[in-house]
């Protein structure tokens, strides 16, 4: 839980995930980061994910995703991450996006609470 992780991707995405020719859609980048964060924080779930896009990601470049824990406090796990790509001529890794995320560990199940129906008037209330 709250571990550091790296993933290097090399793929040729369909144009469907590129918002312009040659630029991977930011939503797809967010999905990849969220998945890597989640893999490091199981069984925690995403409460907040913020991406800052610094440069476009060409679909034919090698992409390096990195995530790491910043703080673990109670049930909250604060994480940060980066998306890096290789410069075309030098091959040097450059920062393409930054991410921050808050993950929350679920509360332990209580048999007493789970066995009683709640009547809060909402969609989950007992009939």
TrEMBL record:
Gene3D superfamilies with a match to the protein in the record: Hotdog Thioesterase
Domain Thioesterase, first and last residues per copy: 27-83
SUPFAM superfamilies, alphabetized: Thioesterase/thiol ester dehydrase-isomerase
Entry-linked InterPro entries: HotDog_dom_sf (IPR029069), PTE-AB_protein (IPR052061), Thioestr_dom (IPR006683)
Name assigned to this protein: HotDog domain-containing protein
Organism field: Penicillium atrosanguineum
């Amino acid at each position: 839980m709250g571990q550091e992780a790296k993933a290097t991707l090399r793929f040729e995405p369909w144009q469907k995930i590129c918002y312009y020719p040659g630029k991977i859609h930011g939503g797809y980048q967010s999905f990849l980061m969220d998945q890597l964060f989640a893999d490091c924080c199981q069984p925690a779930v995403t409460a907040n994910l913020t991406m800052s896009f610094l440069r476009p990601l060409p679909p034919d470049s090698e992409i390096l995703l990195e995530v790491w824990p910043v703080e673990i406090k109670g049930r909250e796990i604060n994480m940060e991450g980066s998306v890096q790509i290789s410069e075309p001529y030098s091959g040097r890794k450059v920062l393409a996006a930054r991410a921050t995320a808050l993950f929350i560990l679920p509360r332990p199940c209580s048999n007493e609470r789970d066995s009683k129906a709640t009547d809060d008037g909402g969609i989950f209330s007992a009939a």
